UniProtKB/TrEMBL annotation:
One GO biological process term: negative regulation of cell population proliferation
Name of this chain's protein: BTG1 protein
Pfam family, one: BTG
Boundaries of every Anti-proliferative protein domain copy: 91-110
Gene3D superfamilies: Anti-proliferative protein, N-terminal domain
Xref: SUPFAM superfamilies: BTG domain-like
Length: 159
Protein backbone atom coordinates (compact mmCIF):
# COMPACT_ATOMS: atom_id res chain seq x y z
CA UNK A 1 0.00 0.00 0.00
CA UNK A 2 0.97 3.62 -0.31
CA UNK A 3 3.24 4.76 2.43
CA UNK A 4 2.44 8.17 3.80
CA UNK A 5 4.45 7.95 7.00
CA UNK A 6 6.99 10.61 6.09
CA UNK A 7 4.40 13.10 4.94
CA UNK A 8 2.23 12.55 8.01
CA UNK A 9 5.07 12.65 10.50
CA UNK A 10 6.41 15.84 8.85
CA UNK A 11 3.00 17.50 9.12
CA UNK A 12 2.39 16.34 12.70
CA UNK A 13 5.88 17.42 13.78
CA UNK A 14 5.25 20.84 12.27
CA UNK A 15 2.01 21.43 14.20
CA UNK A 16 3.73 20.11 17.33
CA UNK A 17 6.58 22.61 16.80
CA UNK A 18 4.06 25.44 16.56
CA UNK A 19 2.54 24.35 19.88
CA UNK A 20 5.95 24.01 21.51
CA UNK A 21 6.98 27.46 20.31
CA UNK A 22 3.83 28.98 21.83
CA UNK A 23 4.87 27.60 25.21
CA UNK A 24 2.88 26.28 28.12
CA UNK A 25 2.51 22.71 26.87
CA UNK A 26 4.71 20.04 28.47
CA UNK A 27 7.01 17.82 26.42
CA UNK A 28 5.13 14.68 27.42
CA UNK A 29 1.86 16.28 26.29
CA UNK A 30 3.48 17.38 23.04
CA UNK A 31 4.74 13.87 22.37
CA UNK A 32 1.30 12.45 22.98
CA UNK A 33 -0.30 15.17 20.82
CA UNK A 34 2.02 14.35 17.96
CA UNK A 35 1.29 10.63 18.13
CA UNK A 36 -2.45 11.21 18.36
CA UNK A 37 -2.37 13.61 15.42
CA UNK A 38 -0.38 11.16 13.29
CA UNK A 39 -2.84 8.42 14.14
CA UNK A 40 -5.84 10.63 13.32
CA UNK A 41 -4.27 11.65 10.01
CA UNK A 42 -3.44 8.07 9.04
CA UNK A 43 -7.01 7.07 9.72
CA UNK A 44 -8.43 10.08 7.86
CA UNK A 45 -6.19 9.74 4.79
CA UNK A 46 -6.31 5.96 4.50
CA UNK A 47 -8.55 5.86 1.45
CA UNK A 48 -7.58 9.28 0.17
CA UNK A 49 -3.96 8.89 -0.75
CA UNK A 50 -3.09 8.68 -4.45
CA UNK A 51 0.65 8.69 -5.12
CA UNK A 52 -0.01 8.41 -8.85
CA UNK A 53 -2.22 11.49 -8.78
CA UNK A 54 -0.74 13.48 -5.88
CA UNK A 55 -3.18 16.37 -6.12
CA UNK A 56 -6.25 14.10 -6.01
CA UNK A 57 -7.95 14.43 -2.63
CA UNK A 58 -5.78 17.37 -1.68
CA UNK A 59 -8.72 19.35 -0.31
CA UNK A 60 -9.76 16.36 1.80
CA UNK A 61 -6.28 16.02 3.29
CA UNK A 62 -5.81 19.73 3.84
CA UNK A 63 -5.52 20.63 7.53
CA UNK A 64 -6.98 23.99 8.20
CA UNK A 65 -7.45 26.43 11.05
CA UNK A 66 -9.56 29.37 10.00
CA UNK A 67 -11.66 30.62 12.90
CA UNK A 68 -12.67 26.95 13.12
CA UNK A 69 -10.34 24.37 14.53
CA UNK A 70 -9.34 21.56 12.22
CA UNK A 71 -11.06 18.42 13.57
CA UNK A 72 -7.87 16.32 13.44
CA UNK A 73 -5.88 18.87 15.43
CA UNK A 74 -8.85 19.34 17.76
CA UNK A 75 -9.10 15.61 18.35
CA UNK A 76 -5.39 15.20 19.12
CA UNK A 77 -5.46 18.24 21.41
CA UNK A 78 -8.46 16.82 23.24
CA UNK A 79 -6.42 13.73 24.05
CA UNK A 80 -3.99 15.89 26.03
CA UNK A 81 -6.68 18.08 27.56
CA UNK A 82 -6.26 21.17 25.41
CA UNK A 83 -9.52 22.94 24.62
CA UNK A 84 -10.22 24.51 21.26
CA UNK A 85 -10.11 27.93 22.95
CA UNK A 86 -6.61 27.17 24.22
CA UNK A 87 -5.54 25.90 20.80
CA UNK A 88 -6.68 29.14 19.20
CA UNK A 89 -4.41 31.00 21.61
CA UNK A 90 -1.46 28.74 20.85
CA UNK A 91 -1.72 28.24 17.10
CA UNK A 92 -1.93 30.73 14.24
CA UNK A 93 -5.53 31.76 13.63
CA UNK A 94 -5.06 31.16 9.91
CA UNK A 95 -3.12 28.03 9.05
CA UNK A 96 -3.39 25.78 6.03
CA UNK A 97 -1.33 22.63 5.81
CA UNK A 98 -1.38 20.55 2.64
CA UNK A 99 -0.37 16.94 3.10
CA UNK A 100 0.06 15.38 -0.33
CA UNK A 101 2.06 12.46 -1.63
CA UNK A 102 5.68 13.66 -2.01
CA UNK A 103 5.01 17.11 -0.65
CA UNK A 104 3.94 18.75 2.57
CA UNK A 105 3.55 22.51 2.54
CA UNK A 106 1.86 25.16 4.64
CA UNK A 107 0.69 28.72 4.63
CA UNK A 108 0.17 30.94 7.63
CA UNK A 109 -2.30 33.75 7.06
CA UNK A 110 -4.74 33.87 4.18
CA UNK A 111 -2.28 35.47 1.82
CA UNK A 112 1.01 34.38 3.29
CA UNK A 113 3.50 32.67 1.05
CA UNK A 114 3.49 28.89 0.85
CA UNK A 115 6.42 27.14 2.44
CA UNK A 116 7.44 23.59 1.65
CA UNK A 117 8.21 21.40 4.65
CA UNK A 118 8.94 18.22 2.79
CA UNK A 119 9.41 17.32 -0.83
CA UNK A 120 10.58 14.15 -2.47
CA UNK A 121 10.83 13.14 -6.09
CA UNK A 122 7.99 11.04 -7.36
CA UNK A 123 9.06 7.52 -8.21
CA UNK A 124 9.02 6.92 -11.92
CA UNK A 125 8.76 10.61 -12.63
CA UNK A 126 11.26 12.57 -14.69
CA UNK A 127 14.34 13.56 -12.78
CA UNK A 128 12.97 15.82 -10.08
CA UNK A 129 13.66 19.43 -10.86
CA UNK A 130 16.04 20.61 -8.21
CA UNK A 131 15.00 23.99 -6.96
CA UNK A 132 17.94 26.15 -6.01
CA UNK A 133 16.89 27.13 -2.54
CA UNK A 134 14.62 24.64 -0.86
CA UNK A 135 14.59 26.65 2.35
CA UNK A 136 12.80 29.69 1.03
CA UNK A 137 9.06 29.92 0.78
CA UNK A 138 7.30 29.67 -2.52
CA UNK A 139 6.17 33.19 -3.25
CA UNK A 140 3.29 32.04 -5.35
CA UNK A 141 1.60 28.73 -5.50
CA UNK A 142 2.30 26.44 -8.40
CA UNK A 143 -0.74 27.53 -10.34
CA UNK A 144 0.46 31.11 -10.09
CA UNK A 145 -2.47 32.49 -8.15
CA UNK A 146 -1.23 35.98 -7.42
CA UNK A 147 -4.12 37.52 -5.57
CA UNK A 148 -5.67 35.61 -2.70
CA UNK A 149 -9.32 35.03 -3.39
CA UNK A 150 -11.84 34.55 -0.65
CA UNK A 151 -13.38 31.53 -2.31
CA UNK A 152 -10.22 29.61 -1.68
CA UNK A 153 -11.59 27.04 0.73
CA UNK A 154 -12.02 24.36 -1.92
CA UNK A 155 -8.65 23.46 -3.17
CA UNK A 156 -9.25 21.70 -6.41
CA UNK A 157 -6.26 21.90 -8.65
CA UNK A 158 -7.10 20.94 -12.19
CA UNK A 159 -4.38 19.65 -14.40
Amino acid sequence: GADMRTEISTAAAFVTRLLRAAGGVGEEQLRCFRECLQEAMREHYKHHWFPLVPSKGSGYRCIRINHKMDPLIGKAAGMIGLSHERLFQLLPSELTLWVDPFEVSYRIGEDGSICVLYESPQPGGKAAKQLESRTSCKEEWRIGRSSPSKSYNMMTVSS
